[in-house]
Amino acid sequence: METHRFETVVIGGGQAGLKAGYYLAKAGRPFVILDANERTGDAWRKRWDSLRLFTPARFNGLPGWKYPSRPYYFPTKDEMADYLEDYAAKFKLTVHHGVAVDRVTKEGDRFVITAGDRRFEADNVIVATGSNRVPKMPAFAAQLDSRIVQMHSSEYKNPAQLRDGGVLVVGVGNSGAEIAYELVQSRPTWLAGKESGQIPVPHGGQRARMFFPVFRFVGHFVLSFGTPIGRKVIPKMRTKADPLIRRRTKDLVEARIERVPRVAGVGDGLPVLEDGRTLDVPNVIWSTGYRQDFSWIDLPAFTEDGEPIHTRGVSTEPGLYYVGLSFQYSVSSEVLPGRGRDAEFVVKDLVARDRNRAAERVPA
User: Fold this and answer.
1) What is the pLDDT of residues 119-165, one digit of tens each?
2) DSSP H helical segments within 32-94, as ranges?
3) Distance between CA 242 and CA 46 in Å, rounded?
4) What is the dihedral of CA 275, 278, 282, 283, to 10 degrees?
């Protein structure tokens, strides 16, 4: 097996990985970004066809380059993907595509990263894959009748994937609400579950233009682990779903989406609701989120529950870093309005560590 050696390996070529690459390049540090996708931006391209970003263009730029559009335009997912691809090219970031990392471990003081039959060694590793990589579905989903078309929301692209007839969308987060709103235009649609609130102003209007800067300021500077209120509130926010943004409760009602209780199980191959009703539907979309999985990092740097142990993205394992975790430092850490603050902090720590190590190796 051929071994490739780098000072720093960044795992993940989405916006988090590109931000880390930008600051590494700015600091003059050699690195490579490993991206499992075939093109930069594919994580956006693979989402459903009609998806638009919730945040306006003025908040969607990465460090060093504003998003090239009108400030309050909401880009499509493909436009965002193309921006990320252009960003990597603009700053000459080295990205190796089609490299899906399956294990990270350590030999001595060097990290070993394996991806199929490829092996990389590095002094530092920045994990920029995000917290939630694995689609989450209830175990009883496997009991649904095989004639029912079912899929996770991460697999949904457009209504053409479904059988004729109604659809049950399970989960009232933003993805579930958006997908249900699209599907009800062409078929009976049921939406199971209960939303966790909604933003206080209608999305996209003049009031929202005033709201977004305030929301960004609070999420970036107030609700962080650097403030007393942030340390108190963030642990509670971690257990709740995000509020509805574009498709609010009123929109769902006006679109005649039928709201139903949570799905409790399966009976005779059909979904059964908490109130005992059975829904005879030919299609089910599970918009039930994702689960965290860092099992591929074989290092003593996690809690018993698999949570990475870190401070602002700096792991307890020397040389291991994170960018793009949910609530890594603030509410804005995982989203585009977070810009590059976390990545900049991580790279500064990495550079300082490497300089200290180099100084220790110099004979007195």
Assistant:
1) 999 999 999 997 657 899 999 999 999 999 999 999 999 999 999 99
2) 42-45, 77-90
3) 22
4) 20
Is residue 53 predicted with pLDDT exceeding 80?
A: yes
Is the pLDDT confidence value at 363 over 90?
A: no
**Which two structure tokens, joined as six digits, stand for 82?**
């193309």
b/e map 127-143, b = 16+ CB within 10 Å? bbbbbeeebebeeebee
* Structure token pair of residue 305: 């529950």
In 91-166, alpha helices (H): none
- For 258, the token pair is 């039928």
Q: Is 101 helix (H, G, I), strand (E, B) or coil?
A: coil
- Domains present along the chain, CATH in parentheses: 3-133+290-361 (3.50.50.60), 137-198+243-286 (3.50.50.60)
Q: What is the distance, to the nearest Å, from the Cα of residue 243 to the centroid of all Cα atoms in its chain?
A: 16
Q: What is the pLDDT of residues 183-198, one digit of tens each?
A: 999 999 999 999 888 9
Residue tagged 């399966």 (tokens): 266
Query: Token digits for 267?
Result: 């009976």
Provide the CA 159 distance to its chain's centre, in angstroms: 24
Q: What DSSP character marks residue 337? A: G
- For residue 152, the SS3 value is strand
In 3-state terms, the chain is what percent helix, strand and coil (to 5)?
Answer: 30, 25, 45
Distance from the first to the final alpha carbon of the chain: 39
Q: Read off the pLDDT of each residue in 237-254 and give the average, rounded to a whole number.
A: 89
Cα–Cα distances in angstroms (integers) from residue 300 to residues 111, 304, 317, in the given order: 13, 10, 7
From CA 214, how far away is CA 19, in angstroms rounded? 24
In contact, 41 and 81? CB cutoff 8 Å: yes
Per-residue pLDDT reduced to its tens digit, 249-269: 999 999 999 999 999 999 999
Question: Which residues make Cβ contacts (< 8 Å) with residue 67, sequence separation at least 6?
Answer: 57, 58, 60, 61, 75, 83
